[in-house]
Amino acid sequence: MYDILRGTPLWVYAVFFILTYYGVRGCFKSHESKRSLQFTPAVFVAISLVSLNFSQGAAIPLSVYALGMLAGWVLALRFYSYQGVVRDGERLVLNGTAKVLLVYWGFFAWRYYSGYQEAMYPELADGVSAVATSALASGIINGLIVGRSLRLLRFFKAELYVIHVVEPIGL
């Protein structure tokens, strides 16, 4: 185990600490902008799409990834609580939840595990089951991230402003 950790590049630790930082921030009440809700899932999806294994062609990994994304999106509707979300101008005020941290750690753990498996057993990495499993897990985790962001972006479309009518003071 120590050899695995010792052989891990420093950039992997940096990615882990960045994901942990943003995950811990999600554990506390925070303000999210529309831009961050659009940017964050795009980064996770881009990383996952670049790291898909296309040794069996593009059809298998992309279709299994899309199926995983759909399943993750459905899970996100039930997994996260959207109660208490308040729109404050161009930002949302969110209650904290440890679920964001768990999903980010899940993303990191899966990427680390699949990278380790690919490095240690390259002959198995190109098999259909390995390609499909990797695409499915990446899709589910990304579906959780994208599903949460899409659901929260809907708060920007709803008119949540309260109009206060002020009566003029007689002169």
Average the pLDDT over all residues and give the rounded result: 87
- Helix-strand makeup class: mainly alpha
Shape: globular
Number of strands: 3
Rg calculated over all Cα atoms: 20 Å
Count of individual helical segments: 7
Distance between the termini: 81 Å
- Which segments are poorly predicted (pLDDT under 50) over 5 or more consecutive residues? 160-166
Report the portion of residues in β strands: 5-15%
Major β-sheet strand ordering: 1-3-2
Q: Major sheet, described briefly?
A: 3 strands, antiparallel
Report on the architecture of this protein.
The chain is mainly alpha-helical and 171 residues long. It has 7 helices and 3 strands. It has a 3-stranded antiparallel β-sheet with strand order 1-3-2. A hairpin with a 2-residue loop joins β2 and β3. The N and C termini lie far apart (81 Å). About 4% of the residues have low confidence.
Compact summary:
This protein is mainly alpha-helical and 171 residues long.
Give me the secondary-structure topology:
Blueprint lengths: L1 H5 L3 H16 L4 E4 H18 L7 H21 L6 E3 L2 E4 L3 H23 L1 H4 L2 H30 L14
Antiparallel strand pairs: 1-3, 2-3
Features:
single chain, 171 residues, mainly alpha, three-stranded antiparallel beta sheet, 6% strand, globular
